[in-house]
Amino acid sequence: MKALVTGITGQDGYYLSKLLLEKGYEVHGLIRRSSSFNTSRIEPLMSKYESENKLKLYYSDLLDSSSITSLINLIEPDEVYNLAAQSHVAVSFKNPLYTSQVGTIGVISLLEAVKNSSKNIKFYQASSSEMYGGKDDSLLNEESQFTPKSPYAISKVFAHEMTKIYRESYDMFAVNGILFNHESPHRGETFVTRKVTKAVGRIKQGIQTKLTLGNLDAFRDWGFAGDYVEGMWLMMQHKEPSDWVLATGESHSVKEFTKKAFEILDLDWKAYVETDEKYKRPNEVKHLLGDSSKAKKELNWEPKTSFEDLISMMVESDNEQAKQEKLLIDKGLLYPTWENSSI
Known about the structure:
By secondary structure, the chain is an alpha/beta fold. The chain is 42% helix and 15% strand. It has a domain at 2-183 and 221-246: NAD(P)-binding Rossmann-like Domain (Rossmann fold), CATH 3.40.50.720.
C-alpha cells in the first residue's frame, strides 16, 4: 500500500506517517520549500525508513496544481491524506488570503488529480471542529450546523463540502474526518496547549518568568493526536465513504488545562499566568464538544488517552526539553528568550 500525505511535517503528519509505516505502507510526503529545514518532527521517521525507500519526500505546494497532478501520476498512491493547511486560527485573521487559498484551491487541486487518475484512489480531507462555531455547549455530530467564525474555519467548510460534492458527483471514495482539538508533545508551540506546557517546563527550570494568555474561559474537546490518526486510517478502510466526528465527548476550559499543567510540576498557576486582550481572537469560539458515537459504532474507534494523561505527557516532554535548554544556557551556548510568543 502506498499513501500520499500532505502536511507531513506537522503534528498529524508525523503521527499518521508513523502509523502507516508501522502498518507496512510506503509513505510519500509533500513538504514546502523553505530557507531552513522544517522536517524536525519527522526526522526520526526519516532516519529509520528513508534508507529502506519506505518514506519519500517531495517539494511541492497545494497551490501548484500542475505539480500536484504530476506527483499523483508519478506516485500512484492507494490513499491520499490531505492534512495541509495554514492551521492556526488566530493567524488566519492576520493572513486570510493565504489561509483561504490553501483551504480552497489546494483541496480542488488534490480532488481533481485524484478524480482524473487512472487508479482508484481513496481521499481523506482533514475537516475541523472549528467549522461549528461553538456558540454554546451543544453536543456536536456529523449533522450539526456549521457556523464558521474565522477565515480558517470557513476554508475548512469549503474543503469539507467540496469533498462531499466530488464523492457524490464522481463516485469517489472521499471522506471527511471532523476532528476536534487534538494535542501532543509535537503540537506547534504557538497553539495554546503547547504554549502552556512549554511555559510550565521553562518556568520550572527558571528560564521563563510568566505566561500570557488570552481567553481562559474558552472550552474545547481535547484529545491525543496519536489516537486520532488511527481514526483517520479507519475511515479509509471503511466499506463506504462518509464523514465522521472524532472527539472525546468531554469539554474543558483553557483555565482548567493551564491549572492542571502547572500542578504536575507543583507550581501555582496564578503566580505566573497573566491575560492580555491582544491574545484574544476577533471572533471567539466559546465552546466545542464532540459526539463521536458514529465513529464508535461504524469504525470501532474511541479515544484511549484521558485529558489528564494528555497533559502529563505534554508537560513531561516539555520539562525535559527545558532541562536541556537550561544546560545550554548555563554553558553559554544559548541565549535565553524570556518573552512569550506574540501569537
